[in-house]
Design brief:
This protein is mainly beta and 68 residues long. It contains no helices and five strands. Strands 2-1-5-4-3 form a five-stranded mixed beta sheet, with no helix packed on it.
Length: 68
């Protein structure tokens, strides 16, 4: 089973939908393709938003390029 999450990097306005095997945890390192290259980022925040979309709960994952 996979989980679709909305991901934003360093509080940028842009965000992207990313599919994970499980919801990432705060402090966990995740690898995401950025400008065609995989980059390791640290999860800084995870927000569950009930009724955030037409299909039910939405999950927003904020990641940072900084080491926490």
């Amino acid at each position: 089973m996979t989980v679709s999450c909305r991901v934003s990097i360093d509080n940028r306005q842009e965000s992207a939908d990313v599919v994970f095997q499980a919801v990432p945890r705060i402090g966990e390192s995740v690898s995401l393709p950025i400008d065609g290259n995989a980059q390791d980022l640290r999860v800084s925040r995870v927000v569950h938003m009930p009724n955030g979309s037409l299909d039910g709960a939405a999950i927003v994952v904020e990641v940072t390029t900084s080491i926490l």
